[in-house]
Design brief:
218 residues; Rossmann fold; alpha/beta; 9 helices; globular
Length: 218
């Protein structure tokens, strides 16, 4: 068996992708940028370093860019995070993997501030062994940096881990890092958009229901 599972959070374990997109729209309105929901929704899964220039033309290191990213986080955490719910079967799936002896290691493009709240809101913070977020990487997904940082944090070698994510950006990051990935459709992407995953499920409950025939039990 694998030694660990690398876990994306947003759209994979908790239903938060729409909320992140709405927080970007709200932030744009405050700063005078017309950020379209339909555009930014399909950028969720990448970190702010990638989303910001796509929707504003600003770079992360610019003074205005830093203000926008900080405010987006504040809006998300205050207006949206308290209302989020984990997907059906999230905790039970993580418990099954943990009971199998698998380390549970977060690999997310979210900031450290967002991550703590997401894990608490999903009711799974006690199950996580290690975590890497966008602050641990030079570039967010689909660059491999966060996946590699998670592997390093958990002292894993190639072949030790499999990943679970919900976006093409997760698949790109895992593939570049040499880690096989299971994809969920729970984040809004269809199967053809998740090509490159070794298996695709509707979400945590679907994988849990087919756990013993899944790649987790290779």
């Amino acid at each position: 068996m694998y030694k660990a599972v690398l876990l994306d959070i947003d759209g994979t374990l908790i239903d938060s992708n729409d909320a992140h997109a709405k927080a970007w729209v709200d932030t744009g309105q405050e700063f005078g940028y017309d950020i379209k929901y339909d555009h930014v929704r399909w950028l969720i899964g990448m970190g702010g370093d990638k989303v910001l220039p796509e929707v504003t033309g600003l770079e992360e290191e610019s003074e205005q860019g830093k203000k926008i990213l900080e405010r987006r986080g504040e809006i998300f955490r205050s207006n949206y995070l308290p209302h989020l719910q984990p997907f059906e079967g999230t905790r039970e799936l993580l418990e099954a993997m943990s009971n199998d002896g698998l380390k549970l290691v977060v690999a997310t493009s979210s900031s450290e501030k967002d991550l703590g709240g997401l894990l608490k809101q999903a009711g799974i913070e006690d199950l996580i062994d290690k975590a890497a977020n966008k602050d641990d990487a030079d570039e967010s997904k689909p660059a491999p940096d966060i996946v590699e940082a998670a592997m390093h944090r958990a002292r894993l070698q190639h072949g030790d881990a499999i990943m679970i994510g919900d976006t093409p950006y997760d698949i790109g990051a895992a593939t570049r890092a040499g880690v096989p990935i299971i994809a969920f459709r729970s984040g809004g992407w269809e199967s053809e958009e998740l090509r490159g995953a070794i298996a695709i499920y509707d979400g945590p409950a679907d994988l849990l229901g087919r756990y013993f025939s899944s790649p987790l039990r290779k």
